[in-house]
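COURSE: Structural Biology Practicum
ASSIGNMENT: Worksheet 4, Part C
STUDENT ID: 0417
INSTRUCTIONS: Below are two proteins. For each, the amino acid sequence is given first, followed by its structure token string. Answer the questions at the end about the second protein only.

PROTEIN I
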Amino acid sequence: MTLGIPPTADVANARWGLSATNRARAPAHVDGYLWFGRPWLCMQADTFVMSRALAMARTTPY
């Protein structure tokens, strides 16, 4: 999954692929997941490249 867990407050959902231990811990330690950064940019800082962004978009269900 290219972009990881989508932004959500449903922190213990088995859909996110967390281990049973981490799913049990998540509600006590995590308020939510969010996307941080710009993974569609090389090293999150280079110039925007449409082909890179489109390639990434093709590999994610989000």
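PROTEIN II
(use this one for the questions)
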Amino acid sequence: MRLLRSQDEVASEEILRDLKRYLQSLPFNFHNASIISGAEEGLYGWITANYLMGNFLKSNLWNTWVRPHGAKTIGSMDLGGASTQIAFTVPLDEGVSQEGYTRVRLYGYDYNIYTHSFLCYGKNEAEKRVLATLVKEQNNSTLMHPCFPVDYSMNMSASDIFDTPCTEQPRDYDPAKQFLLVGTGDPAACRAVVLSIFNLASCQGQANCSFDGVYQPPLSGDFLAYAGFYYTAAALKLGSSFTLDNFNSTAWEFCQKNWTTLTANYKIREKFLKSYCYSAHYVYSLLVDGYKFTDEQWKNIQFKKQVKDSTIAWSLGYMLTLSNMIPAEAKLLQLPMSNSVFAGLLFMFSALAILSLMFLIISLVRACY
């Protein structure tokens, strides 16, 4: 909807108005419907990730919800179809007047969060931008696609590529024009064309800048990468945590497999399988060239779909905020020690009490005789 609004605000408002009218007709107490901003989506995703990880609250020995001892938060990265978001905490005194920072109070504690959403850099829209680049560079109805596997080809209309605000239509644009995409399985060329859609030159000479001239403070802490990030790692048959070199080499090998080999070894639908070489190089370029993850920082990323059987999505964070399950001024018990230390001390004192009681009983029995 944000993508539609950027292209046709009137159309997006009409859809929203019809949606509200329909929801109001249903037998429940409907309050409102709106299009959230990209920054809000990033923030709600961050809340969801940390809530599921137990970084805000944790049940102690007395089944009371307390803030975990030495609590730390994790950053979140969401890769959708139209946009991608990154969010992580920074010191409370940082970036007070800079764009991209949001200060929130959760369960009685303040958090300063940097968040940014890149519209048109979602996995699907970015792939259209790659295709648009191939059309421009090759200027032919038959396009050699380095990210598609060898022995794979497909037809695609110009409207599938250019009927979006994320791509620039050619001067002689004909939406009915057909292109034949032929896979060449060239990982180096795929990496190059994917990287070309990022405007890295706009950050040249700037220390704290990701891409497209967007300010980004230095990365810190652990990160949870979900949605498209997870599905890409899963398609490459990687776990939730792996090195950057492992990801890169696996992506390279995947891209060099022909279509027959891929269909025989991967039980993935064609519409997704054909694009996972592109997805792998896109994830690499976004995280390494865009967000500036180093080899060491990459080790702090976990690629997950769920946490404790709950799917990671911004909607949970939105619900928690609106339902007041995150009270602004909640007073929480903060133990001066961790639960494990307290349990150990409790066991020790209990054992001493039992031994003392036994000693007293033995002494009384001996005194009677």
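ANSWER KEY EXCERPT:
Q1: The chain is about 40% helix and 15% strand.
Q2: The CA atoms of residues 150 and 258 lie 5 Å apart.
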